[in-house]
Amino acid sequence: MKKISSWMKESGPEGDIVLGTRVRLARNIRGIPFPGTAGRQQLKAVLEQVKDVVPFLSPFGEFSYRQMASVDLLERELLVEKHLVSPSHIQNPRHKGVILDEAFSISIMINEEDHLRIQVLKAGLQLEAAWELATRIDDAFEKKLDYAFHRRTGYLTSCPTNAGTALRASVMFHLPALQRVKKVQEVLGTVSKFGLTVRGLYGEGSDAWGNIFQLSNQVTLGHSEEEIIEYLVRFTDQILHSERQAREYLLGDSRRLETEDWLYRSYGILSNARSIASREAMELLSNLKLAVDMKVIKQKDPELLKQLLVQIRSAHLQEIMGQALPVQERDRLRASLIRDTLKK
Amino acid sequence: MLCEKCGLNEATVRFVKIENNLKTELHLCQSCAQGYTNLTVGLDLQNILSSLFQSGPLRSKIGQEQKRCSTCNLSLKDIQKSGRLGCGECYQTFEEELNPVLRRVHGSVNHTGKIPVRGRAKEHLNRQIEESRKNLEECIRTENYEQAAYYRDQIRRLEGELREGKADEKD
Lengths: 344, 171
Description:
The complex is a heterodimer of chains A (344) and B (171).
Chain A: H1 6-9, E1 18-27, H2 40-51, E2 63-67, H3 73-81, E3 97-101, E4 106-110, E5 116-123, H4 127-144, E6 149-150, E7 154-155, E8 167-174, H5 176-180, H6 184-188, E9 196-199, E10 212-217, H7 225-250, H8 256-272, H9 278-293, H10 302-311, H11 314-321, H12 327-343
Antiparallel strand pairs in A: 1-5, 1-8, 2-3, 3-4, 4-5, 6-7, 8-10, 9-10
Helix pairs in contact in A: 3-11, 8-9, 9-10
Chain B: E1 13-19, E2 22-28, H1 30-41, H2 45-54, H3 76-82, H4 90-93, H5 95-106, H6 120-141, H7 145-164, H8 166-169
Antiparallel strand pairs in B: 1-2
Helix pairs in contact in B: 2-3, 2-5, 6-7
């Protein structure tokens, strides 16, 4: 658990705007009720059956299986901050499990809302690559497990909003310029017409901290996986175009001074603050990342900033320090970590 | 009136939220309203699911709520409450009630994507047969009988393959 996931520190394709890509497939085992309804013995049986597949995942990397109940609280929160498990997966950890690869870019949640949730995470914009890997891992599981599948409804899931392909593909955007010119709403507001949806950083119901937005498909039935990926790719292109336009606008002759002043002020606070809460830190780091991506501030490494956006989150910070910390102490350490990193 | 969220700026946006028939109203300034609408762009489908189950003609069917899945024992009422199904069998048990929900959420009730490796060949045959049937109907409708005969023969051949279980050998 000690290191940062590879997808979170590398830059990846379109890395100036797209932080990462995620593809998730939900699967259930035929004949066993979904986790919300299954009894203890049935949940245990699912854990055992899924665990037995781990040795067959070797073509995709080195995997380890963990029972959630044996993972301590801080480590569980780390898993959430790394986007490897959902916030609901760390609550009531009994009879839940997770399979992780060594690079922390593949995770399989066991007994979350569905028996299996296969997730692939990639740096930058890599929708097709993430889907291809996810479907191959899915095939490896399917060789050993009999899936709940119906020829008309497709893969059967606990929630009917996931039935069919049971595919959720997401792109994580950093849109500080669109937010600055107050156009986020205009650009993202039309997504629902295309069967897509927008959420904040940690998924459903979460706020857009640090100008980070997740675009994902809402519709899972009636379109093939390839079609769903294609819609997302097309919409992503539009968002990239709009954000780039907004960045150009911010650097236009009449705006440049105001923009530079705004960005340098963020840099100034980050380089000097002695105590900073995570929300403010996220906002300012988002501004600094924009400054570096727009080459207003040249000497900073964009990958270092991407890492900071993760490291300053509470559980990561406590992990760096090796202990649980009170809020005040966290804010002080956060400020000091940022100052030290920016000196590099 | 000042914004009810930040309390700093003049409220210019009235934010109305209707949830479970409960109406709540918030008066917000421009910038807070933006934050709020960002949150609700991705309309939380899962939460409105249970209300979807309860809309339409199903409600009026007396006794229907007591219908239970023989595999997991969940009743329609349980599903309406949680918006979650209990097991794979529920999809067939409650097909009639579920189809309108699937149609409203996805705009379709027919899966056209990936098929598990097991039985994949068989499913492909089924899909081909369905496709040919649609084409056959279309040809009859447009009185293109020559082409219709072609599809009729194709359907026969595919159905024959399905019966002989040729597809399963490949599994």
